[in-house]
TrEMBL record:
N-terminal signal peptide: none
One family name in Pfam for this protein: Actin
The protein, known as: Actin
Family indicated by similarity: Belongs to the actin family.
Domain of life of the native organism: Eukaryota
Organism of derivation: Entamoeba nuttalli
Amino acid sequence: METPIVLDFGSQTCRVGNAGESMPTNIFPSYVGIPRERSQLKPDFYVGKILKEQKREFQIKSPIKNGTIEDISMASALFKNALDECQGYGKPILFTEPALNPKQIREKTIQLLFERFKVPSVYFSIQPILSLFASEKTDGLVIDSGADITQIIPIYEGYVISSCVHKQYVAGNDLLEYLVSTISEKRDVNLSTAAAKEVLENQVKKDCLVALDLMDVVRLSSDPDLLRTYTLPDGTEFSIEEERFLCPEILFRPELFINDDVLAKGLDVACYDCVMKCDIDVRRCLFNNILCAGGNTLYPGFAERLASGVQKLCNDSIEVGIEAPADRQYSSWIGGSIFASISEFNQLAINSFEYDEFGAQIINKKCKISWD
C-alpha cells in the first residue's frame, strides 16, 4: 500500500507531505494567480513561485477564507500543485479541514479529489482534533489562530463540541495591518506595498512578543534592547520599539486597537467563556488541557499570558494547564501525519468503490464532524 499524503490547507499557506514524516516537506502560499490575459494555450490558474516572479501578469486571489474553501475551482489549482510537489498521484489522501466545515464544501472537495485527481482513497479529519492528536490527547481546548481567523474549539473524547465553538476574526492579518498603519504614521515610511508587507510578515512580526501584564509593559518600555531596525527592498530603513509588544496585544485587548461594530473578546476571556458554555462535567478537563496551535500563537510570552488570564477568571479549585508545542504552526499537519500512519487508516478511509456507490454524501457519514 502506498504511503498516504497529508494535505493541510490554510488561508495563508498549504502544508503537504508524506504520512510518517515529522514535518511537511512542501509549504507554499495558498494563493492562486489568474492570468490577466487569458489564452486557450495557458492554464486558467497558476500557483507557486511564478506568482512572485511575474506578479504583474496575474490577478492574485485566495480560494480559502477563514480557513474554509470558498472557490473549489481555484482550490483545484492548490490540490494539483500539492500532488505535483510530493508526487502524490495514485496515493491515499488525508485532507485536514476546519471545525464546522460546511457539508456542501466537504462534498465538493471529495468530488474533486475522486473525479478529477482520481485518488484511490481519502479521509477528512478536523484540524484541531489532529493538533490534539499530535500532543497525544483526545480531550482539550484548542486555540487555533492563523492569518484571518482565531478559533477556540472544545474537544471531548475525540469529537468537537460544535455548539460551543467560538470564532472571531481578529488574527494575523489584523496584526499586520496594525504594523502597516502605526509604523507608516509614526516613522513616515510607506509600508503599503507588497514587498514592504513581506518584510513586516517575515521579519518584523517574528520579533514581536507578548507582555505578561501591566508591569511587564513598563519593563519592556524601558528596555534598551527593544529597538529593532529593518531595511526594505528599496533600501529604506525604519525602526520599531513599543510596536514589538503592542502588536500582539491586539489578541488580548482588541477593543483598544480595532474599531468594529462587533468587538471581539480578548483571548483569555474568549477561552473562559467557551469552556463555561460546555457541560459542567467536561469543564475541568478542558481547562486542564488548553492547546495552542497556529502561527499566530508563536509569540514569546503568548502561552504564559493566556494561562495567567484564564487562571484569573477561574476559581481557585481549577488548575489551568496550557501546552504550546514548539512547531505548533504545523500541529494539524503533524497530527495528520501520525494519524495517517496508523494501521487502521486504510480501513477508515473512503475508497473509490464506496464513492462510486454512495456519491459525495458518504463524506458526511463516514467522516463525522462533531458529537452534538
